[in-house]
């Protein structure tokens, strides 16, 4: 098992290398010049040339790329061209904000999606099944930015129940420790702030959860429908087991693997930072961090930020693959 | 046999499936009794209603579209066909247990053998301690002839062969000492040698615990080897009922005769094996006349226009054929209801 994990991690190296190379080239193909953006429209040619020299942008691209790689292998993500701060420390608060929101959204998506799928399959062709599947269809096809705007309009502007945007109340700021605000406020015993953080999470969390919920519900339903017809489900019923346990114990565990796969993929996508959702809700996440870096042509932040996102995505897939073995002992990696 | 106590009585059982074309009876006014400690076979081709009969007894007919639409299923005098799902749960696994055709897929692949047997025990004996449950599970595994019973508890079904899995299924079915065991083609999916072992095991356990066994099969070899009485079903109806000796020596219904003729016999070298021409009619497709008439070599005009009743030749032998009536078979009791229907 450890062997397998080691092998998989080694396999990540060429994937991430290839990724970094493509991103490196593509961002340099975007018109615009970081030195120009930093110095502004009125900067002289001389000062731009001097800054380019200082930032190392005059070197041939392969020299720049190998400098970048050298840094990566020593665990250095480089410095932001714009702020001159090390990216590895600058990126964390953004990443933490995205992780907190993504986990919150995925918890909603898993609880609602899996249960809706199970009940739809259990009572196939009932009104619940029809209604749930129509909602799921609407859910997957919903433009999320539009849903976010409607949420803000209804729950913030009209009903005034929830804040429109941000992670915290700016008049009552949170002093970050881990940058996971739910955890930080609990560590500090600030339960008032904890409630505020939850309130800020709800609207973007629900918006972000919509598509995963719908996809999980549909996948759970189809997987459960197949399993519910199997012989061991009949055996469990023939033992006199309650239908609830037949469904939630015997059937669900067998139906879980395809569901787990989509949960993994969706979590990876959300952790990549949903740029639209983060922008609408002014969520200071990794998606917005990279998006803003693109505006500043901050090459180092873009390439390292995308690399971090890609790394998280492949790690989640690895974790999902390992979870398969926990559910199904027949699956063995060697 | 006749003097023994009836443990299960099926009276006028009709199980129907509802579709856009209306009601179709897959089991059509079936009557039979199962006595304490006997092994009774239900024989017939695929689609003759034997599995639906057994699922009706268990209350596991897929609903919708299936439903018991008439008749009674008396378990020691109580009509369990009218029981609620909650009441039926207490019967299943406890009073009536069932083993299935496919041992490869009948056990849940993701739970250990121990977990699945313990579950069967705990559903009906909630107060048992962990140790009691474990001991009982080990005892049952030993009883069905599985070696390494202790270790097996921690193993998964995929680590076992088909024969071993069927033994586990039998252990699991008998763990609560049921009064009736329904075995739905328990050996169909197994090798011939394993088949013989499993049948021997069922016979032994039947002998030891006096559990009545309802053996659903299409294999007359299985019948000859294990059962005392036989019910032959065709297109949802009982067409013949007799003791094993009578069925093989003196089959009365042309369908039974056909079935027996189509069993390969090693003593004679034949060009090709006999087979009954045609197929089982779709349930509900024969409206008038004997359901076997289309395939029967003895069919007369009467067979096409009149429904034969289940004629009684002796107290232990009944047959649904006009030929039997001509031989002097009589209709009495509840069977006459069928004709008047």
UniProtKB/TrEMBL annotation, chain A:
It comes from the Bacteria. This is Peptide ABC transporter permease. Its main location: membrane. Residues 95-324 form the ABC transmembrane type-1 domain. PANTHER family: DIPEPTIDE TRANSPORT SYSTEM PERMEASE PROTEIN DPPB-RELATED (PTHR43163). Coiled coil: none annotated. One of its GO terms (cellular component) is plasma membrane. Keywords: Cell membrane, Membrane, Transmembrane, Transmembrane helix, Transport. Pfam families: BPD_transp_1 (PF00528), BPD_transp_1_N (PF19300). The chain crosses the membrane at residues 12-30, 91-118, 130-150, 201-220, 255-281, 301-324. GO terms for biological process: transmembrane transport. It is found in: Cell membrane. CDD domains: TM_PBP2 (cd06261). Belongs to the binding-protein-dependent transport system permease family. It is a multi-pass membrane protein.
From TrEMBL, chain B:
It is a peripheral membrane protein. Residues 8-260 form the ABC transporter domain. CDD domains: ABC_NikE_OppD_transporters. GO terms for biological process: peptide transport. It comes from the Bacteria. InterPro entries: AAA+_ATPase, ABC_Ni/Peptide_Import, ABC_transporter-like_ATP-bd, ABC_transporter-like_CS, Oligopep_ABC_C, P-loop_NTPase. The keyword Signal does not apply. It holds the Pfam family ABC_tran. GO terms for molecular function: ATP binding; ATP hydrolysis activity. The keyword Nucleotide-binding applies. It is found in: Cell membrane. Keywords: ATP-binding, Cell membrane, Membrane, Nucleotide-binding, Transport. GO terms for cellular component: plasma membrane. Gene3D superfamilies: P-loop containing nucleotide triphosphate hydrolases. Its main location: membrane. NCBIfam families: oligo_HPY (TIGR01727). Belongs to the ABC transporter superfamily. This is Peptide ABC transporter ATP-binding protein. It comes from Ureibacillus sinduriensis BLB-1 = JCM 15800.
């Amino acid at each position: 098992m450890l062997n397998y994990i080691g092998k998989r991690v080694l396999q990540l190296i060429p994937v991430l290398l290839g990724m970094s190379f493509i991103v490196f080239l593509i961002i340099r193909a975007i018109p615009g010049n970081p030195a120009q953006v930093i110095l502004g429209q009125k900067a002289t040619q001389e000062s731009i040339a001097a800054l380019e020299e200082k930032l190392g942008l005059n070197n041939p691209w392969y020299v720049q790329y190998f400098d970048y790689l050298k840094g990566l292998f020593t665990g250095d993500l480089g410095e932001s061209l714009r702020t001159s701060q090390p990216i590895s420390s600058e990126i964390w608060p953004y990443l933490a904000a995205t992780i907190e929101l993504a986990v919150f959204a995925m918890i909603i998506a898993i609880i609602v999606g899996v249960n809706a799928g199970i009940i739809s399959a259990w009572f196939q062709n009932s009104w619940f099944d029809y209604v749930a599947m129509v909602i799921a269809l609407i859910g997957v096809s919903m433009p999320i930015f539009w849903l976010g705007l409607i949420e803000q309009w209804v729950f913030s502007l009209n009903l005034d129940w929830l804040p429109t945007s941000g992670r915290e109340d700016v008049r009552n700021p949170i002093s970050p420790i881990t940058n996971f605000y739910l955890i930080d406020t609990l560590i500090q015993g600030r339960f008032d702030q904890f409630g505020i953080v939850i309130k800020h999470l709800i609207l973007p969390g629900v918006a972000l959860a919509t598509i995963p919920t719908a996809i999980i519900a549909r996948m759970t339903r189809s997987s459960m429908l197949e399993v519910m017809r199997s012989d061991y489900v009949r055996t469990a019923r023939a033992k006199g087991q309650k239908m609830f346990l037949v469904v939630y114990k015997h059937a669900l565990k067998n139906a879980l693997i395809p569901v787990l796969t989509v949960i993994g993929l969706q979590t990876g996508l959300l952790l990549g930072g949903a740029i639209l959702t983060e922008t609408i809700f002014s969520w200071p996440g990794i998606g917005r961090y990279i998006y803003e870096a693109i505006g500043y042509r901050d090459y180092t932040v873009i390439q390292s930020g995308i690399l971090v996102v890609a790394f998280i995505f492949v790690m989640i897939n690895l974790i999902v693959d390992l979870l398969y073995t926990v559910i199904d002992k027949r699956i063995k990696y060697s | 046999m006749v003097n023994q106590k009836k443990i299960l009585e099926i009276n006028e059982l009709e199980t129907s499936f509802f579709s856009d074309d209306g009601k179709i009876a897959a089991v059509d006014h079936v009557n039979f009794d199962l006595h304490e400690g006997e092994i009774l076979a239900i024989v017939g081709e695929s689609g003759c209603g034997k599995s639906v009969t057994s699922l009706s007894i268990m209350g596991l007919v897929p609903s919708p579209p299936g439903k018991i639409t008439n008749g009674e299923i008396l378990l020691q005098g109580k009509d369990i066909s009218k029981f609620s799902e909650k009441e039926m749960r207490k019967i299943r696994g406890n009073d009536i247990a069932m083993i299935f055709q496919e041992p490869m897929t009948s056990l849940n692949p993701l739970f250990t053998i121990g977990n699945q047997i313990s579950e069967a025990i705990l559903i009906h004996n909630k107060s048992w301690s962990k140790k009691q449950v474990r001991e009982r599970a080990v005892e049952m595994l030993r009883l069905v002839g599985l070696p390494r019973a202790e270790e097996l508890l921690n193993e998964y079904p995929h680590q076992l062969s088909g024969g071993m899995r069927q033994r586990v299924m039998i252990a699991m079915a008998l763990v609560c000492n049921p009064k009736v065991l329904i075995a739905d083609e328990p050996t169909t999916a197994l090798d011939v040698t394993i088949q013989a072992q499993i049948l021997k095991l069922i016979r032994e356990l039947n002998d030891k615990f006096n559990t009545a066994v309802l053996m659903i099969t299409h294999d007359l070899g299985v019948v000859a080897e294990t059962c005392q009485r036989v019910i032959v079903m065709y297109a949802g109806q009982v067409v013949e009922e007799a003791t094993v000796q009578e069925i093989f020596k003196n089959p009365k219904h042309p369908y039974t005769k056909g079935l027996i003729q189509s069993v390969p016999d090693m003593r004679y070298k034949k060009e090709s094996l006999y087979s009954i021409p045609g197929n089982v009619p779709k349930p509900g497709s024969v409206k008038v006349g004997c359901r076997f008439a289309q395939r029967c070599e003895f069919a007369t005009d009467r067979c096409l226009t009149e429904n034969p009743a289940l004629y009684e030749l002796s107290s232990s032998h009944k047959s649904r054929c006009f030929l039997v009536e001509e031989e002097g078979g009589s209709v009495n009791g509840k069977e006459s209801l069928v004709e008047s229907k």
